[in-house]
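Next up, sample data:
>
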Amino acid sequence: MTGRIALRHITRLYPGPAQEASIGDAVLLIAGSHIVHIGREGDGLPSDWSADASPLEEIDCSGCVVTPGLINTHHHFFQHLTRAVPAAMSAPPLEWLFVSYPLWAELDPAMLYAAARAASAELLLCGCTTAADCAYLLPQDDGELAAALVQGVAETGIRFHFHRGCMPTLEGDLEERLAKVMGTRVATLMDHDEAVLSRRLEDVIGRYHDDDPLSMRRVALGPTGVTYTRPALMTRLADMAQACGCGLHTHFHPRPDEDAKAAPDAPIRFLERSGWLRPGTWLAHGTRLQPSDIATLVRTGTGVAHCPRTIVRLGFGVAPIGSFRKAGLKLGIGVDGAASNDQGNLLSDLRLAALLHRVAEPPELWLTPEAALEMATAGGAAALDRPEIGRLKPGLAADVSAFRVDGLDCAGAVADPLGALLFAGTENRAWLTIVNGKVRVMARQLVDLDETRVAADLNAAAARMLAQAGHATGIDFMRKTSVQELVSQ
C-alpha cells in the first residue's frame, strides 16, 4: 500500500444517506485514492493494515464530525470577479443581469484563471471535494478561456465537473436594452454560429473529459437557459452529450415568458422531447416546478441543484425541497455564482438549505440534519451520476471532510454532533479536506496554495474588470442603483 492515511478517534462519522447509522469513536483508513476500512476504534484495525510498513499519516479527529466530501452541483466560477458590486446589490434577476453582463464582457483568460483558482480554493476550505462549474460565458473562446479555467481549478486539486456551457440568446429583452450601453459588443456575449459552437464543444470534450470512475475532471454540456426558440440546438447538445458520455446541465425555473415560448408544450415537456431528461442531466434551481414536473424528473432520473442563498439574494420563490425529497427526486446543493450569492461557501449554503424551506412547507416535510447532509453528498453524487463519490464506504473514492464541533460556537450542542455543525455552528471552514486520497486542507488552511496570493490575484483581476467595463460603457458600477433606475435603462 502507498499513500496511507488513518483518521483516528473520530467523534462521529456520517457515512452517507440519511438512513445509514452514524458511528461514534470511529476510524477511517485510506490507501491511495480509495477508502479501505471504516469501523470503531475498539474493534481494532485490519491485520494487513497493521502489518504494512509503508508511509502512514495518522490524523487525530477527536472533536470532529467526519462526512463524505461535500459536492457543489452548481457554480459560476467567473462570477467571483463581480462579488458585491454596488450597482447590482438591490437588483432583481433581469436587472441584476443588466448590470452584470457589461462587466462579464471584459472576461479574459487571466481573469478567469484567477477566479477559478479562488473559487475552487474557497470550496476546498469549506469541505467541498467536487464542484460543477457552469461556464456558459465563453462565446468567443477558441480554447484559451477553457484552458485558463481548467488550469486554475487543477492547481487546487478539487474534483471538477466542467459544464462547458453556451449562451445562444440573452434572457428576456436584455439584448435590446444592453445594445444601448454596449453597442455592437452585446453580440459578443452570445453563441450565434452553431457550427463553430459544435466544434468548440467537441474540442473541450476531447481535451478535458475523462470517464474513469475516479476521474478528477468530467465535461457536461448545455446552454445557460433552455433555448425554446432553437429546439434543434437543444437536441444537438443532447445527442452530443449522449455520444460522448457527458452530462447535461442548464438553469430551469421557467418564467411566464418562457412558458409562452415553449407553447404548445409545457417547458418540462419541451426538455423531454429534446432528449434532455435522463440520468446525468441536472437542472439548476427548479423553484417553479409543478407536481407534474417533479414526477417527470423522478421518472426520467433527472437531478436538481438547489441553490438556497441565490433564492434569498435574487428574490426567487422558495423551492419545496421537502416535497422534492419525498417524491424521490435526485437533489443536490449548489453554491451558484458569487455575483448572486455572494459567498462561495457550500457549508454556509447547506446550513441555509436545512432551514429555509421551512417557511414554505409543513413540518412533516422539514429536513433533519442527516437529510440536509445527504443533499450535499449522496444526493449531489446522484445528480451528477457519480456513484463512486458522496458516501464513505470501503472501495469508494477517498473524498472526506472533517469539521470541528468542539469549539465555542457548538458548545452546549452535545446531544447531536451533526445538528451542532449545521444548526449551531458558525465556523465556515472545514478542519480537514481530503480529495482522492490527498490532503488539501489541514487545520483550516490550504496545504498547496498561498491563500493570500490567491486572494490578491483575484482582487487585482476584479479591479481590472470593473475599470474596463466602466470605461467601455460609462456605467458607474460603484453606485448603488435603484430598481426603478435600472428598469428605465
